[in-house]
Each structure stands twice: as structure tokens, then as C-alpha cells.
Amino acid sequence: MNAAKPPIRRAIGLMSGTSLDGVDVALIETDGEVIAGFGPTGYRAYTADERAVLARALDEAGGLTDRAARPPALAEAEAVVTRAHADAVAAFLVESGLTRADIEVIGFHGQTVLHRPALGLTVQLGDGAALARAIGIKVVHDLRAADVAAGGQGAPLVPVFHRAIARMAGIAPPLAILNIGGVANVTFIFSDESMLAFDTGPGNALIDDLLRERLGLPYDDAGAIGARGSPEEPLIDWLMRHPYFAATPPKSLDRNWFSHRMVGHLDTPDAAATLTAFTLRSITAALDHAREKPARWIVAGGGARNTALCEALGQHLQTRLTRAEAAGWSGDHLEAQAFAYLAMRALRGLPITYPGTTGVAAPMTGGVLAEPDAEEGNLPEN
């Protein structure tokens, strides 16, 4: 007799990206395999003071050799992250007319401050146990650590979700789903539905850092500032010789491997144009690693709103990019939805990482479960 099919449940995903802007919240309905529907979304911005705390933590995290260590700047930032996520969930439930009993699980990514898988280090700030106690819902967190401990890259984690939503939308492979966040990553889904995924290089983070420092702006709206400038092509050529771009995927990138200060000698439009072109070139180079040319590219994340970048990218890829919204998806909340899906898969002991997505030896589950009234513990293996 076949086992009973698991019921469809509501799950909430939380994502705080490398751009340090705030917390995305999203609800989906899923059994960890099929996505039955998308629910409401929400957002809780970090305050200027909170962003300053997180920026200090990023600076201090570079010296970590123990992923469990919490020197003062990181301890302060972890408290900020946990409190902001608890606030975000509480507001989301009220605004959506939901109660704690309506939610099966919350997927809590936390705030990445260090990601160096070659050293066995990946650090996402956020106290999962404290969050579960604060909101009264079980939480799956620390979703990258098991993969890194098993020799994987621990990133990207979203490809299995990308494949699920492509199936839901009836979009046939070969397909590329590109997320341009602080760091950009791509999922190639081939005709046989196998996946190859990796970080392509910097996304928005360097451009955002530049404009925040020079102009007090959070980002380059529609790419207008960069569009006024001219990229310094020799610098971009030199940057593209970094060994990361020639490395065979799967592979992942630490946010701090590159700095916006490498364009410090340029005026702001030229600096923004150079950083934008660097993002463009690194994404285009990702196609060299695909064994099958995608028939379609779907782009999500904050970079999808950079009109100048996306138009130039379409020209370089010789294809028209489709924004996630045009596919019926939420471009701004796709990663939060993904962590809701991953949390439900983790609860069932289903794989969340694969050889083609993180380089781990075999498909594996991950995450740590925190119950509101119990000690946290590792989730079951598939």
C-alpha cells in the first residue's frame, strides 16, 4: 500500500540579503515537493542604526575562524537580526489575518556575514531558538552548515525551489533563473530536469555600497546613475581574470571578496557604470559553464529593477530577459518563498542540496529545528 501523501501546509520564509536592506517575509502552501500556492508577502526594513550594526559585524566577521564565535560586534548584530525577524513575523501575521496555529514552520535564513566554504566556514547571524520562542512557531534555521560540513559550497540553496516553481508554472526547460541580489546566482535547469547552479559574481552589493557611501542612496534606481557614466574596461578585464570566474561550478562567492573601493579613483557615474558592467560581464560568463543553452532567462531580485543592467544583459546573452513578475512570480520575495519551501523539505528529511547545485557528494537535507518549547536539534536525514 502506498504511504499517505503528506498534507499541504502553510510555511513562512524569511530572507535578509547581503544588501542589508531589511527582512523579506513570504508565505507559501506546500508539502515540501509540490507548491500548491503562493500567499501574502511582507517586508520589514532595517533602520539606519540597525544597518550600521550589521555593517560593523560584516567588517569583524572577516577574522573569524570559528563559526560559533560571537565577538561583541557579531553578538550585537545577532540580537538585532533576531529581533527584526521576530518583529517582521509578528507584523506579517497581523496584516495577513493569520495566527500562529495557521503556520506549520518558518524557514529562517539569517544574515550572512561570512561565507568561506573552502575553510568550512559559513556564518548566518540569527538565533533560531530565540526566534521560535519569541513567535511561538517552530523554526528551521542554519540551512547551509550541514552542506558545508559535508564538503559542499553551502550555496546557492534555492535551485530545488526554482525547479518546483518552473514546474508549477509549466515552463519547460532548458531554462535559466537568475537572481541578482547582493551576490548574483543562476540556476540552469536542463532538458532532463537536472540542475547546475552557482554564484556568478557580484550582483547589487558593490553598486549599493558605492552609492550609499557617496550619495546616501540605497541603490541606483533603474541604473540611471551608472547609465550616465562610462565603464573602465581595462579594470573589468583585470577583475574577470580572478580565478573564481574560471573555476568549474558548483561554486559560491563571499560578499566581501570584492570591494566597491576598487573604483574609488573614478567619479560616481563612471564608478557605478564600471561596477554595473562587472556584474554584467560575470553573469554573461556564467553561460560558458552551461552544457545546454537556455531557451529562456527569468530574472529576479533587486537587480531586476536595474533597467540599464537588464537591457544590456539581454543584448549580451542574445535573448530577452523575462522578469519574475511576468512569469507570475514575486521577484522581490522569491528567496523568502524559497526558504519557506526549504524548511518544509527539511522537516520531511528531503534533499535541499545536490551535487550539481553545491558540489556536495550526494543529495542531502539540512537545517536545524528549533521548537518554541523545546531544545533545538538536527533535522532527520532522508
From TrEMBL:
<dbReference type="GO" id="GO:0097175">
    <property type="term" value="P:1,6-anhydro-N-acetyl-beta-muramic acid catabolic process"/>
</dbReference>
<dbReference type="Pfam" id="PF03702">
    <property type="entry name" value="AnmK"/>
</dbReference>
<comment type="function">
    <text>Catalyzes the specific phosphorylation of 1,6-anhydro-N-acetylmuramic acid (anhMurNAc) with the simultaneous cleavage of the 1,6-anhydro ring, generating MurNAc-6-P. Is required for the utilization of anhMurNAc either imported from the medium or derived from its own cell wall murein, and thus plays a role in cell wall recycling.</text>
</comment>
<dbReference type="GO" id="GO:0016773">
    <property type="term" value="F:phosphotransferase activity, alcohol group as acceptor"/>
</dbReference>
<dbReference type="InterPro" id="IPR005338">
    <property type="entry name" value="Anhydro_N_Ac-Mur_kinase"/>
</dbReference>
<feature type="binding site">
    <location>
        <begin position="17"/>
        <end position="24"/>
    </location>
    <ligand>
        <name>ATP</name>
    </ligand>
</feature>
<dbReference type="InterPro" id="IPR043129">
    <property type="entry name" value="ATPase_NBD"/>
</dbReference>
<keyword id="KW-0418">Kinase</keyword>
<dbReference type="GO" id="GO:0005524">
    <property type="term" value="F:ATP binding"/>
</dbReference>
<keyword id="KW-0808">Transferase</keyword>
<comment type="pathway">
    <text>Amino-sugar metabolism; 1,6-anhydro-N-acetylmuramate degradation.</text>
</comment>
<keyword id="KW-0547">Nucleotide-binding</keyword>
<comment type="pathway">
    <text>Cell wall biogenesis; peptidoglycan recycling.</text>
</comment>
<dbReference type="GO" id="GO:0009254">
    <property type="term" value="P:peptidoglycan turnover"/>
</dbReference>
<dbReference type="GO" id="GO:0016301">
    <property type="term" value="F:kinase activity"/>
</dbReference>
<dbReference type="GO" id="GO:0006040">
    <property type="term" value="P:amino sugar metabolic process"/>
</dbReference>
<comment type="similarity">
    <text>Belongs to the anhydro-N-acetylmuramic acid kinase family.</text>
</comment>
<protein>
    <recommendedName>
        <fullName>Anhydro-N-acetylmuramic acid kinase</fullName>
        <ecNumber>2.7.1.170</ecNumber>
    </recommendedName>
</protein>
<keyword id="KW-0119">Carbohydrate metabolism</keyword>
<keyword id="KW-0067">ATP-binding</keyword>
